[in-house]
Design a protein that fits this description.
Elements lengths: L1 E6 L3 E3 L4 E9 L5 E9 L6 E7 L4 E3 L7 E6 L4 E6 L8 E9 L4 E3 L3 E6 L1
Parallel strand pairs: 2-11
Antiparallel strand pairs: 1-3, 3-8, 4-5, 4-9, 5-6, 7-8, 9-10, 9-11
Length: 117
């Protein structure tokens, strides 16, 4: 009932910036409560990057605070992640996440972010 499509992944040098975008296509009578981004690097578990709910309340991982900014458009059902001062440790597949008003989670396919030193 929710389809997520990400865009914006790329390869950049350390210190660079990227903007990831995710658009949700919703089924009938489906409302989103929150959206966000997780990431998974090879050999690592999936970890939270940032989330935002429909009221604008945000949660950030300590590792990205001050560098990343998440924003959500409740009308367009999109979520953006602006990433500044990227570090090699940010290299991962970034997955868009959405949670409906019934707390059902959905995931996108992911977009690759590679930061070279």
């Amino acid at each position: 009932q929710v389809r997520l499509v990400e865009s914006g992944g790329a390869s950049v040098p350390a210190g660079g910036s990227l903007r990831l975008s995710c658009r949700a296509s919703l089924g009938r009578a489906v409302w989103l409560d929150a959206m966000g981004w997780f990431r998974q690097a090879p050999g690592n578990q999936r970890e939270l990057v940032a989330t935002i709910n429909h009221s604008g309340f945000t949660v950030y991982s300590d590792s990205v605070k001050g560098r990343f900014t998440i924003s959500m458009d409740n009308i367009e059902n999109t979520v953006d992640l602006r990433m500044n001062n990227l570090e090699p440790g940010d290299t991962a597949i970034y997955l868009c996440y959405a949670s409906t008003s019934l707390s059902v989670p959905y995931w996108g396919q992911g977009t690759q972010v590679t930061v070279s030193s």
